[in-house]
User: Fold this.
Amino acid sequence: MKTETTQIHRIIQELQAGWLAGSGAQFAAAFAPQARFVAFDGATLTGPSEIANRHQRAFDSHLQGTALDLHIEEIRLVAPGVWLAWTKGGITKANGSVVERTNESVQLFVFREQGGLVVIEAFQNTRLRPVTDSQSAEVWRQFDQLWRNRGR
Assistant:
């Protein structure tokens, strides 16, 4: 298991390196051919090609000059050859300063051993915005209303 957890740490470092390089292909390289990627906004991508293309467009525009800062909170073996990894982090400017505090998120990775290598089978990213009181609930309701009314 030590070898696999080392591979998981390396894969997450490679994701961050691909992001910093602004390379969608490098970012998506560790995803399995049928991997599912659920972005913070609910967009669902399937496979490395789709993941790479979507990220490349973002790296070439609104994510240009940013870095991905992830911290592993836990890695758990859940079945032979299958691991879950929970991370927390967000986007920073390449120099390390925070782009915006509201982008802190939690992530869940599903890793699977495939031919002696560990690959990402699934990924879910969720913005960290808990509803803890009536004010935060109202913010969520207002955003949902704005989203429903966009483009009308």
Observations:
- The two ends are 53 Å apart (CA to CA).
- The mean pLDDT is 90.
